[in-house]
Amino acid sequence: MRRAVDSPKNAHMNCSACKNRGPKTHRIKCAPVPLTKAQLKLILVSFDRNGDNRLSKQELKDAFNYIGSHFPSWRAGRALHRADDNEDGYISEGEMDDLVEYVSQCGYTIS
Q: Residue 78 maps to which CATH number?
């Protein structure tokens, strides 16, 4: 399955050091780069596994795990608390901007 964006864990492969010398000779550590809100939204939307245009707690947990959260289940619960305005237990399209804002404030990076 192709993903909408590169995996944050493998994003360093796009840095100039890796492109010029290849991954096996990569000797410098790339500086972490914050994920943009557009990248975060693409990542989050890609975890709508059942295509119902909303994110469940499990889908959020999977998304937080993907972007490198140390406590994805806890983050998913906090995200629902912060962004689920109608308290139906899902993040719908109308609540997505609040979710993206919350995730952006968490400071996830590509390293």
A: 1.10.238
